[in-house]
Amino acid sequence: MLDFLSLAYPWVKTLHIVSVVAWMAGLFYLPRLFVYHAERGSQAEVDTLFKVMESRLLRAIMNPAMIATWIFGLCLVFTPGIVDWSMVWPWTKAASVLAMTWFHHWLGLRRKDFERGENTLPGRRYRMMNELPTLLLLVIVASVVVKF
Q1: Listed residue (104, 78, 111, 81) closest to 12, CA to CA
Q2: Where are the alpha helices (DSSP H) in 1-88?
Q3: How many other C-beta atoms lie within 10 A of the C-beta of residue 57?
Q4: Is residue 143 exposed (0-12), middle (13-18) or buried (19+ Cβ within 10 Å)?
Q5: Sorting pLDDT into bands at 50, 70 and 90, what band is 15?
Q6: What is the percent of the chain where pLDDT is above 70?
Q7: Cα–Cα–Cα angle for 19, 23, 24, nearest 5°?
């Protein structure tokens, strides 16, 4: 299995990067939809439109992209010679990926709140939370590229 991972490394890395890009796009966009939904979604027709957009984004793009990111990322972790766990960078990346996954699930819970008509958070809170994936992305990319 490890020989296969070594041979497949360029393809696994490619699929990991594509998955991350798709996941990040959703993590940037869904909180922005929540901002607009919280601030302008009081009309029934607009509320319904936001619910459909949020649900499709989460279920059709974000969830599959997150799962693919994790699968291909774990394949990279198990590829011989790729990760040196004695360094700091894999630990900062792992912690940031776990935080990103938590954020993904937090967004999923907020979507369910909107679906039930029980959202209590203002648009300002979603604006603030929208910065979290950017900060985590910076830590992840710096960890992998600089390898501190």
Answers
A1: 78
A2: 2-40, 44-56, 63-78
A3: 18
A4: buried
A5: very high
A6: 99
A7: 115
pTM tops 0.90, yes or no: yes
Mean pLDDT, range 82-89, rounded to an integer:
96
What tens digit of pLDDT does each residue of 38-73 get? 999 889 999 999 999 999 999 999 999 999 999 999
> Longest Cα pair distance anywhere in the chain, in angstroms?
57
Which residue type, as a one-letter code, is found at position 100? M
